Target: Alpha-L-glutamate ligase
Amino acid sequence: MAKIGIYVERNTISNGDQMAGIMRFAHLAQRMGHRTDFLFRPDMFKIPEYNGIYIRAFTDPLNSAYVAARTAQMYGVKVIDDPDSILICCDKVNMYRHLMKAQVPIPQTLFLDETQLTPTGAQAVFQELGNPLVLKAPNGSFSMYVEKVATTEDFLKVGKKYFRRADRIVAQRFVRSEFDWRVGMLGGEPLYVCQYSIPKKHWKIATYHPDGKAVYGPVKAVSLAKADPRLLECAAKAAAAIGNGLYGVDLKQVGEEFVVIEVNDNPTINAGDEDTKASDLYERLIRYLVG
Model:
């Protein structure tokens, strides 16, 4: 029997769909003969007692989940997500540099510094990437700090806001689509495939109202057997550029080809969404952690 610690935080527990997915994981692990415990911040000292740690919390290098990942790594405990992947994926500049080095297809991308935040600089970027284009702060997640701009005024306004958070920001060619592909990757192999629909009258999969409420489109799962092999190949190449852990690779389809929008550590795994067409999803996660 192995011991698996499931590291969570308060926001994890408040998300019903995410908790339902975690409970499916935990119940299956128990049926396979393993013990599962929920771990919170005060329980971090217990991590060395476990054979595997499954992190289901916001993995920012400044958050406790990263400390949990580093602690597991220090004690030789298998962990999802590993701290090296967290450091890469939580910094979009770092993440895109890894993808570029591995020659993964991505939309045309520039890294901007604050000297380019001028009307002349804006026009030069529009000239190179097209109009509209997308600006991204390096440390955003869940589609936050990602905005489409079409005028010099908006470019300067959004850029100024993002440079308060970082000394480099990402400018990227806008790729229009009705949905994003999400390919879950685990240990270099596809784990699940979904289409994340873009809500009507919006351009990205998650949009936030001024009151902070998020608007998401429906999720459509696709079986691995029916997924385009080129989609899976592209996702695998992107995941390999980051590491060998658990990733959610976001892609857009352009004609017959695919481009990677980004690679996420700690991808969403909600009951009734990502697991719908992947019957062995939780078993594979468990076996990855504890064999």
Summary: Residues 187 and 244 are 5 Å apart (CA to CA). The chain has a mean pLDDT of 93. DSSP finds nine helices and 15 strands in the chain. The first helix runs from residue 10 to 13.
